[in-house]
Amino acid sequence: MKKDNKNKRVDNKVKNAKTKKKKKMKRWKKILLVIFLILLIAGGLFAYRVYKNGGGMSGMLATMVGHDENTKKNLPELKVLLLGISTDQEGVELTDTIMVASYNPKTQKASLLSIPRDTYTGNYPSRATAYEKINALYGRKNRPDETLEAVNDITGLNIEYYVVIRTEALIELVDAIGGVTFYVPRDMNYDDPTQDLHIHLEEGEQLIDGEKAEQLLRYRHDNPDKYGNMETYSDEYGNNDTGRMRTQREFIIATIQQTAKPENIFKIGQILEVAERNVQTNIDFNVAKDYIPYVVEFDTANILTGTLPGENTNENSSGTWVFIYDEEETEKLIQEMFYDRDLEQETTETEGNTTNTTNNTNLSNSTNTTSNTTSTNKVSKSDIKLEVINGTGESSVLQNVVDELEGSGYNVSRTGTTNTTAKTIIINKKNTSDTLLDNIQLMLGVGTIQNSQSTSSKVDVTIILGKDYQ
């Protein structure tokens, strides 16, 4: 009997333990369910905000930094002075590269204006000295303030921010991302033992490492021949310093494109270390972080490039070569590069809204509007200047392509030959319509269409024929 009672007590304890365990399990299930629902709601709200911020990586980053759908609308255009500092001459720091960069997050357009390093900043050109060149201003106090002030005087842009980049930064960055694939525009051969500078590059598409990047960006002309003549960039590409600045701009754009590849996300720490060691800027992080969500999806094809207009002269008492910028032409270029593009975007959006309204109210007016727009934008083949460069390795191909293009009504204004290249590239250098570019691609049967717009280019489209052309 005692044994039976003892067994009953044990059974009751087991039952009670099981009951308590079940209650605990139910309680934890409820807690987990509540947590899951909270996470689901929070995730849904986050996803909704990401969607409202445009979706994708840009929308996610914008949401993470606390933006809403109105943030981008209120962000002003960002204008920055970029200074590339050469440190090769001991005790002297000169700005080898001077550019004005702008980025508009609303229109997703950017501009890159090169300023010749010999630009005269004094008041008396007839008594010009090297000390008054814009590239000498930074070295006076090792501060960018004077250069920034001079650039604002020249452009009237009222730029607030600057970024100073030492030569070592670009070398390290290019090496960090595994090199940059780039088309070197000509054979480059130059030696300056005083700077321990030796430039030896062959024309053609190739992988540029850090050492080659420095050579590419510093090249101006070849070593002099026995008569003292020095070969440099072609007039069409941009002679001497103009060609050098064009190469710098195009290489910077290529570096941005290739740094932004998804596989380089794992190298972000290394890239930031390079920046910390070699970059000086007055851009506050709180300002920069507002633009980061929209920069990540920026298309470099939307960069408009140009060079400060003017001429080189040594007609002064010291015989110093300086660049005298043309004030009237500079004003026009600044308007075109930094203001007209935004105005064009606003006009397009306004016209789009107007057209939609018209379609809803009056079909006749809508038809007229469409007709007028079509006739205004119509450009004939003969209006476009084409440059054809033969990179197939077969000399007979060039003339055949030229004959075919001209037979179809295109205007081939320039031809040339380059080192053998694998792929055919069709480069839109002006504002050629997609329709005409597609027609050229269809005629060739091959070719990748790229945008590399330049206000200084003398042709509208450059075609580089590759070995894939049959």
Short description:
With 470 residues, the protein is an alpha/beta fold. Helix content is 46%, strand content 20%. It has 3 domains: 51 residues; 266 residues, 3-Layer(aba) Sandwich (Aminopeptidase); 85 residues, Alpha-Beta Plaits.
Question: Can you walk me through this structure?
Answer:
The strands form five sheets. A six-stranded mixed sheet has the order 9-4-1-2-3-10, sandwiched between helices. The protein has a five-stranded mixed sheet with strand order 14-13-17-15-16, covered by helices on one side. A two-stranded antiparallel ribbon has the order 5-8. Helix 2 packs antiparallel against helix 10, helix 6 crosses helix 7 and helix 6 packs antiparallel against helix 9. Helix content is 46%, strand content 20%. The protein folds into three domains: 51 residues; 266 residues, Aminopeptidase (3-Layer(aba) Sandwich); 85 residues, 2-Layer Sandwich (Alpha-Beta Plaits). It is an alpha/beta fold. About 13% of the residues have low confidence. The longest helix has 51 residues. Strand 13, helix 13 and strand 14 form a beta-alpha-beta unit. The radius of gyration is 30 Å and the shape is globular. The chain is built from 14 helices and 17 strands.
